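tmp note - RNA-directed DNA polymerase
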Amino acid sequence: MDGVSSKLIKFELMKSQVEMSLEKCIEIGRTVEAALLHANGSSESTENIFFYQQRIRNTGTRPKHKQNNNSKQHSIKCFCCGKENHVKADCRLIKKFCSECGQQGHIYKMCSKKRQISTLEAKQPEEDAEEPEENVIQNSFQEEYKTYSVSVSRVPPHYITLNICGFDLKFLLDTGSDVTVMSINDKNLYFNSLIIQDSNVLFRNFDQSITKPLGILTNLSVKYNEVTKILNIFVVKDNAPRVIGRDWLNELNLWPPNLSNNFEIGTNLIQNVSDAQQLVKSEFAEVFSPGLGNFKGETISLKLKPDAKPRCLPVRRVPFALREKVNNEITRLLNNGRITEVEQSEWGTPVVPILKPDGSVRLCGDYKLTVNPCLEIDHFPLPHVDDILDTLKQGEYYCELDLKEAYLQAPLSSESKNCTTIVTEAGTFKYNYLPYGVSSGPGAFQRLMMRKLKNIPNTIVFIDNIYIKGKDVQDTYETLCQVLKKLQDSEFKLKLEKCKLFTTSLAVFGFHVNKNGISVIKSNIEPLLNAKTPTNLTLLKSFLGKINYYARFLKNMATVLTPLYECTQKNNFSWTLECEKAFQIIKRKLASAGNLRHYDPTLALILTCDASDTGLGAVLSNRDENGVVKPIAFASKKLNKVEQKYATIDKEALAVVFGITKFYNYIYGRYFELETDNAALVRIFGPTKSIPKMAAKRLQHYAIFLSAFNYKVRHIKSSENPADFLSRIVENENEKLEIHSLCATANSSIVCYTNESQMDTLNWKKIQIESKKDRVFSKVIRYLTDGWPEKKELDSEILPLYNRKTELTLDRGCIFWGYRILVPQPIRKAVLTELHKSHFGIVRMKEIARSYFWWPSLDVDIDNITKECLICLQNCKSPPQTQKPWPIPPSPWYRIHADFLGPFYNKMFLVVVDSFSKWPEVYEMSNITSNRTIDVFKSLFTRFGYPVHLVTDNGRTFTSQEFFNFCKSNQIKHTFTPPYHPATNGAAERFVETFKSAITKIRESGHSLVSAVNLFLFDYSSTPQHTTGVSPSRLMLGREIRNRFSLLRPPPISDIVQEKVGKREEGNRQLKFELGQKVMVRDYRKGGKPWVQGLIVEDSIPGVSYIIDVEGVKWKRHVNQMMACSQSLEYVQAVD
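out:
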């Protein structure tokens, strides 16, 4: 019925509620036409009734009888419609547009530019219309397209889908049209390479206007079902719909239509957004299903430079709080086939776990120092922002698709997998799919997506984001289906919660895109518009500096700001009514100023960041060819109470991460300049320099996050920083801001926190108080807050701290070097006394200290502890002998060593040591019978389970039949040491020796035997071993036990086991003794101490042996039987 122009006929046809055949419709139409003829008393034939009614509708008057010639001579002719008896101003068609020239105010027949077809028009309005000429085709297509849908029945039009030269296009089915047509827009979109041929055919529309098509496309391959034809199609101007006429219907065996048979006429239009969303989700459920996709097609190759040398870095220790999550992520990647475990590899990159908002972690390889410098970067161009905005312009509806973990869906070539190998505590793994952090990732993935989604109209891809537009819901749905079909065939998967389907607007790269155009998102400049009245001179100058920076957007700025400039020239800050008025006016001018500069990827990109005591600020700018820097967008954020207590360097670093996170879509994948007014960050965040080892964990995580970006960091003065004002004017209201998961979880990543303990002795609060009093530490605290002066201006005692200035942080008034707290001078002696309370050796004390605290002369002070402790000197043990070790067991409590100790202080003890973790167990034994020993082992095994292997000596208890049956029943392998060679049971024997020496020293310090045993076992199990590098409790229990030194750490106390700091020194003992020097010499007399004090009186063999005066008796001793001691020690008489 689209071809029926008479409203009366349409109304009669729509009145029927039943389905009618074509013959019945024609019969009703002719009946209405006859009734109209009879009502008007006309003798016109039914063939001309259409034109008759059309004239009535166009002119608004009925045709009149012819007048005589005299009346015609005095008539006035209208220049709009050509009729007489009225002027153009009174014509009812004055608002009509000419179909020939497009101008308003006249119709086609009165156009001066019309072609020579005037014979088709009647000279008098009352004359009947003539039949169309031979070269004029009657066509229901209208140049100015209108949708003739009847609101009463709401019957949608029907479409038929045809394949034309490989494109599936839908055509409006119009049985009243003689020819098939498409618009010039469709031609340029799908057949841009084809040439339009000239055509002499003219179209007569249903309103009797004559139009000429732009031309004709010939020799098109058209396929419908099993029928394929070579056909021609007419091309018309404007954005008209695609219409299939009777010419193509006949060629495709669809004419005449048999409505009673299975005549497929396409699908109805989708007009409801919710229906379209539901239909897409159901049709492409596989694309939105859980899990990762596996791209089916080409692989991505990472090309190494010819001179590339493999590099393998050591494993980076994972925080214990994240270890389980990291293991779960590794297991997930293994199960999904994203990674594969390897035995060894020339390449090795440590990983950094990044917490996601949902609590899971993402494994990111730190490829900055391994693979990235060796890669030939894929410079496949990313789409320009102008291209994206041009694609999305004039769209009614939009879609944005986000690939789920996009890189992990793109497989790597076999030769590219080895260089992506990561090293973790759980093993070494190589990636089978593209990992995050590889510099060639953006270009390579963009190339893959462009190849897959090419030739899809109104669609553009930016790495893992796909943008789609449509002129209506149906058009958007058709384009979206093409994209989803490609993704489904390639086995890609999308993240549904991040996809936007059939929205009327879209936020793309900081721009708000809708059908009306493109505008800057106003929220980017809201911090400036919502600035409160300055309360001091600093804020006023900062505000003026910011306004001056954007002076090119403001008219008469200098005049408006005169009161504010005068306010800055006064000695005292005085805010007047004129100042307030100027302040409000300039803000209104800024709000009404033109849009900020559009992002131009061809110009240099600058990100400027700054932080104040209460907020963060960032400005993204472009620098043009003339060196003029203009802003693109602003961002600011108020610091919460915890972040406000950060050190200055931490706030400045957080501002950098905030700026990059806020403008992530602008800067990711391209080179940019990073500006900051903090000089220390230039060293830490420099992309060509490694991350400082002792930098605070927070800064280390930030630096790793920035390693995925390509940038150059530059230091600028604070007065030149445009982000300074934004960081000072943030609102107090809580602001919801999408920020990178690294920033959201920064508080849980840092280990430098203080304990809230109320302990009155040695704790962090005392360090906090003494740090403020200490002359050196108070200066360092001020430098960390306000910035460091030049090196030449510092005292020599501050230089050791200045050399570590990029690694020092401030937390609650305490200074930290990495994770170690700095102890001020007044309480260092108390800390050393507490450290030496267990009388451990130098190496063990240094390992404890390196896990908790530090000061510049710490190592020297620890060396002097043992030399000044007479108890340690008198009970020092001889150096251990070298022997072949037992094989390393695969797990804790796999092989244990047991031995009896005593009599020791008239007591017998059973000693058990785990060979893997060095975990000790000591039991006081009332007797050492087999039954008593078996009872102790049963109690022990109830806590830790049965071991696989037990090693003991040949004592009667262990060789008894009862003990043999006990081991056999529990399937424990029992191994005896060789007779008279106790060193075979080295683990137990060494522990027995350590135990006796330590207990003796602790006992002589005034502790009871039970207290001494408990203190020794507590400190021994929590102290890192030099053979394993970690404490027995960490290996045995999987955690560190809380001890008295844990109080020195600020809360929350982390369970991280620090990396082994030093190596154990072995052999090459070099000592030089001089005459008259006090030394400790070995005493072989029975009942005496192992070592006694003596005086060197002469050298027997220089450098080898000496004569020592001991209690008036001269002894000859080798250097291996001598030890140096402090010369300040008083001579002590040996006690028998």
